[in-house]
Write a structure and sequence with these properties.
The two termini are about 15 Å apart. By secondary structure, the protein is an alpha/beta fold. The strands form 4 sheets. Strands 3-4-2-5-6-1-7 form a 7-stranded parallel β-sheet, sandwiched between helices. The chain is built from 35 helices and 23 strands. It has 4 domains: about 240 residues, Tandem AAA-ATPase domain (Rossmann fold, 3-Layer(aba) Sandwich); about 120 residues, no CATH class; about 230 residues, P-loop containing nucleotide triphosphate hydrolases (Rossmann fold); about 220 residues, no CATH class. Strand 14 and strand 15 form a beta hairpin.
Length: about 950
């Protein structure tokens, strides 16, 4: 009942390049995402596309509102438009999470570039590893800065910078990474993400905005004079807010409670005391780590390796035993005459930690080889420690885990949650110990593991069963690492009760079905802890989340670390966990971790430890409770009523657009594949039995597709791509179509009252090239009695089934139809020109304000000299001696000369600023001189029956 003309109409609607400020532009990306989208996320993505002249935006939603999803929508849209040179810079600990999110939720492949695989690619003959086709390139801030020259040479379509508050001090010359990346990525479209754009100083806003666009504010000194060294903060806030509003968008958690349900965090602290043997081992290894020189640890990684050894020492005797043996192996190799790499295979996030820790000076290995006696003595010590560690079979913390789990399960049951727990450890050897401990104490058959390898027999079994269960389904990505993770998560969700995971398990998985989190080993990095708990305490969690932590009551430093994380960072209790103010008070969790490690390494007595933690606490309090909170509200946060109204509008528009988009796709499939599909009544679902793609059931709703194990049909699915391509390529002659209106479920008053039930329709595609390429489908429709049908009514014809009666010879079109066609085209071009004019005015206003800032800065300098001259003249009049008067007169003459020079410079500089502004404006004007093209898609003679 559909015709090739329907197909062409639907396929065109699905593939039009829509205007950047319309929700229709991102409809394809929204409909093809496997995620429940909230209005604020759609609104944020639209903000990123609001102007084709923009160099980028800053999305600054509070923690927990899904900035990753907002950015992924933007990335997906660029991807759909074949703009696929995309760079994503993120903290090393978040790289895998980004890779998983893009792949699992948006079907976008990416690759993590780091030193190891970069060098491998180079050796394999890849000249430019950053220019990888059809993959988003993900790298850390450190690696991006290290490779800045190569990054600068790539014409990126989009650069996304996560946790961008790391760059907020870029205005300081000392911020080397920030300034390096700012230069390397200049003139690239950027999307900055941070919950904490403003923490300690208004200069941070200057820094972040300057990364996006250098032509927003004047220079640093002028910005300080205009917005910081002022008396009236209220007026300052009004003007600064106006300057920021086209670059920054921020939504608060309290503003979206209508759409996002939040549950609480409830903490349980399990205290324990180590055995005498465990304490002896701890003290001996701690003393070893304090040695001035350690041959087993590479000098370039001494601080990092010391931190890791301390963490493994606190994890379990099994963890430290294996790592000490690795140190012994390195020392033995030294005695044999060669420098072997230290292999710490127990800590699966070591590569990313190395990436973020700055290297230190490396020792001269040839010199070290002459110190054989010292190396042998260190080897003897380590042998003693290993023997002690191996003699310990009972770990007090492990035994306390059994008690803590019982408490946690009881609390979860009381809260109505499933009997499921995820246990995090920082050691793979501890993970093995915990699996055995739990299996032998009542949890046999209920425990599974997740780490960076999952090469144990049980994981392999789970993986193979998962592959068999999902054979032929879209859920299988083809990446073994990603599919293994998906298989383990599904096993945990559907069958197992306990998941024991290393740090790798905290990256890129969603465990909303689990509400008991156990930090068996507690990281010192608050951002890592938040990431762990956030696997369960996130959007979609229906229960309050219980968080269990362990505390060694015999260790003073451990107690103070826990107190800091609990009381200052507030990670374990409440509705939101760590707030953005708190997490934003530290530039980087790595830096905070280094501070803690330094205390363990340098403080010997309880008093020294307490004093060191007191210093950190005072610093945090100063940063968290400073007066920037008020400025942040005034500058970046909109009134609740305004946000509510905007989000409601966005929600309604998104629902309407996505519904229409889904109908177009479903109708196109029916039109093109009608002989090869069997429809499923009442749902956008069908069984496909053709040869263009995999046979089986297809569904247009991703949740239903997963539930029914159907293929999820989206525009980018091979089946959809094939039918779209097929429909667009078809040449259509004039034809008569009879539309079946009388059997339609939807009655339209206009159609009912029409005197003439037949006429002509022309479908044209208008393409306009100016600031952006945009396309519009124009429908000119006139009944035989001259009645003009507007485009909305003409579009409704294609919601009706029809039959193609006859192919017509080209006919002479009526004057009314030609006039309507010309009118619609001109109206659309006028609308495009109006929008372009708004973009132009906005950009010109920005450039004018930038130029005025610079000029005002120059004029301020002259006014300061005038004030100095005025004061000197007063001093001259009251001088006590002739000598004093003459000295003051010399100073006045010198300043008057300087003033004349400044005035000459002012005119030259004003001319230079105006020339720069005019150059930028001329560039915009050239873009405005775009062309427009019209393409006739088809002409039909229509009849309503």
């Amino acid at each position: 009942m559909y015709t090739p003309y329907h197909s062409k109409y639907y396929a065109t609607q699905l593939t039009l390049k829509r205007p950047g400020n319309s929700i229709e532009k991102i409809a394809s990306s929204l409909s093809g995402a496997k995620v429940d989208l909230n209005p604020h996320q759609i609104d944020a993505a639209l903000f990123a596309f609001r102007s084709p002249l923009s160099n980028g935006v800053l999305l600054a939603d509070e923690v927990g509102l899904g900035k990753t999803i907002e950015a992924a929508i933007v990335i997906a849209q660029y991807w759909a438009e074949r703009k696929r040179r995309i760079l994503l810079v993120a903290p090393a600990s978040l790289r895998n999470q980004w890779l998983s999110e893009l792949d699992e939720k948006f079907y976008i492949k990416s690759v993590i570039l780091e030193s190891k695989n970069y060098n491998q690619m180079k050796r394999a003959g890849c000249i430019r590893p950053f220019e990888i086709e059809n993959k988003v390139v993900i790298c850390s801030y450190h690696f991006a800065a290290k490779m800045a020259d190569e990054i600068a040479s790539v014409p990126w379509d989009l650069v996304v910078m996560d946790e961008a508050h790391r760059l907020r001090n870029v205005y300081k010359p000392s911020n080397i990474i920030g300034n390096t990346l700012k230069v390397a990525l200049a003139n690239r479209k950027k999307l900055l993400l941070t919950a904490t754009p403003l923490q300690n100083s208004l200069m941070e806003l200057y820094g972040l905005v300057s990364i996006i666009d250098e032509h927003v504010f004047g220079d640093v000194k002028t910005y300080r004079d205009m917005y910081i060294n002022i008396d009236n903060e209220e007026i300052r806030n009004i003007f600064l807010r106006q300057r920021l509003q086209q670059f920054c968008q921020r939504t608060l958690r309290k503003q979206v409670t209508e759409y996002v349900r939040y549950t609480r965090r409830i903490s349980i602290l399990q205290k324990y005391a180590p055995t005498k043997e465990e304490e002896l081992l701890y003290n001996k290894v701690s003393e070893y780590l304090l040695s001035p020189k350690l041959y087993a640890l590479p000098a370039s990684q001494r601080k990092l390796m010391t931190l890791i050894l301390r963490k493994l020492l606190a994890s379990s005797s099994f963890a430290i035993s294996g790592t000490l043996q690795a140190l012994m192996t390195r020392l033995r190799h030294m005695l044999d005459g060669y420098d072997a790499e230290l292999n710490i295979d127990d800590y699966d996030v070591l590569p990313e930690m190395i990436d973020e820790w700055d290297d230190e000076k490396t020792d001269d290995f040839a010199k070290i080889l002459n110190e054989r006696r010292e190396i042998a003595e260190e080897l003897q010590k380590l042998t003693e420690y290993v023997e002690l560690a191996q003699s310990i079979k009972f770990n007090a913390k492990g035994e306390n885990l059994l008690l803590a789990l019982q408490k946690g399960f009881e609390k979860s049951a009381e809260l109505g949650a499933q009997r499921k727990a995820v246990i995090f450890t920082e050691s793979k050897r501890t993970q093995d110990y915990l699996v055995n401990l739990l299996t032998n104490n009542g949890y046999d058959g209920q425990v599974i593991v997740l780490n960076g390898y999952n090469n144990d027999a049980n994981s392999k079994r789970i993986y193979n069963e998962w592959l068999a269960r999902h054979q032929g389904e879209d859920i299988i990505s083809g990446s073994k690492q990603a599919d293994m993770k998906a298989a383990i998560v599904e096993e945990f969700r559907d069958r197992a009760s306990i998941l024991v995971g290393t740090e790798a398990a905290a990256e890129g998985i969603n465990l909303q079905f689990c509400s008991l989190v156990v930090n068996y080993d507690l990281p010192w990095n608050p951002q890592r802890i938040e990431q762990r708990i956030g696997r369960c305490h996130r959007y979609g969690q229906k229960n309050d989340v219980v968080v269990i932590n362990f505390l060694n009551i015999a260790n003073e430093a451990d107690k103070l670390v826990y107190q800091l994380l609990d009381e200052k960072f507030r990670l374990f209790d409440g509705i939101f966990g760590a707030s953005d103010e708190v997490l934003g008070s530290i530039e980087s969790g790595i830096d905070f971790e280094k501070r803690i490690a330094e205390i363990y390494q340098t403080c010997r007595t309880g008093e020294e430890i307490q004093a060191a933690f007191d210093v950190i606490q005072r610093e945090l309090e100063d940063q968290i409770q400073n007066n920037m909170a008020q400025a942040r509200r005034a500058l970046l946060e909109n009134f609740d009523e305004e946000v509510v109204r905007r989000l409601k509008t966005c929600e309604n528009a998104a629902k309407e657009t996505l519904s229409l988009y889904e109908r177009w796709l479903f109708s196109l499939v029916q039109s093109e594949l009608h002989t090869d599909i069997e429809l499923y009544p009442g749902e956008p679902r069908f069984y496909y039995n053709g040869s263009l793609a995999d046979k089986g059931y297809y569904h247009l709703n991703w949740k239903k597709a997963e539930q029914l194990k159907d293929h999820f049909l989206r525009k980018e699915h091979p089946l959809a791509e094939t039918v779209i391509r097929q429909a667009l390529a078809r040449e259509l002659s004039y034809a008569k179509l009879t539309f079946d209106y009388k059997n339609s479920e939807h009655k339209i008053t206009f159609f009912e009252e029409m005197k003439s039930k037949s006429g002509w329709l022309i479908a044209d595609k208008l393409a306009s090239e100016a600031f952006e390429i945009q396309e519009h489908l124009l429908l000119a429709c006139v009944a035989d009695d001259g009645t003009v049908m507007d485009e909305e009514l003409a579009a409704k014809l294609f919601e009706l089934p029809a039959k193609e009666n006859i192919e017509l010879a080209k006919a002479e079109l009526t004057q009314e139809l030609q006039d309507q066609r010309a009118k619609i085209k001109e109206e659309m071009l006028a609308r495009i020109r109006r929008n372009d004019m708004e973009y132009f005015r906005e950009e010109c206003s920005k450039l004018d304000a930038w130029a005025d800032d610079l000029k005002e800065g120059l004029e301020r300098e002259i006014k300061l000299i005038d004030r100095e001259i005025s004061q000197l003249r007063k001093d001259e009049r009251t001088a006590a001696t002739l000598e004093q008067a003459l000295e003051l007169r010399r100073q006045i003459h010198a300043l008057e000369k300087k003033r004349r020079e400044k005035i000459r410079d002012l005119y030259k500089e004003q001319d230079r600023i105006d020339a720069k502004r005019d150059e930028l404006q001329a560039k915009i004007e050239r873009q405005l001189q775009g062309r427009s093209f019209i393409e006739e898609l088809f002409v039909i003679r229509w009849v309503l029956e």
